[in-house]
Write a structure and sequence with these properties.
The chain contains three helices and four strands. Helix content is 30%, strand content 19%.
């Protein structure tokens, strides 16, 4: 008799304001945050941006190698999830931001 074990991973959304991707935030800290949230906490990292800002922030992240753990851009109030609530994302407050994820 074979026993099958199914593991279901529930993905939650981590909403990140687009302003946290650009200075005064640090791009390396942003990438570290999205890597940790995606790999260790199973979050879908969504960037919240207005329609006219998406191209600018997409190019900004893509040119700096920080887009690899971002799932997609979304419009404000179009998705539910945990909102990353910090003024800026730097290596000085990265641990605090990671602890916020739970």
């Amino acid at each position: 008799m074979a026993i099958f074990l199914y593991i279901f991973i529930k993905y939650m959304n981590l909403l990140i304001r687009c302003e946290l991707t650009a200075p005064p935030s640090e791009v390396g800290a942003f990438r570290s945050m999205t890597l940790y949230a995606t790999i260790f906490k199973s979050y879908d990292c969504l960037i919240v941006a207005d329609r006219d800002e998406v191209d600018f922030y997409y190019k900004w992240l893509k040119n700096r190698g920080a887009y690899d753990f971002v799932k997609q851009f979304v419009l404000p109030n179009s998705e539910t999830g945990k909102l990353l609530n910090v003024d800026r994302l730097t290596y000085n407050n990265l641990n605090e931001a990671i602890l916020y994820l739970g």
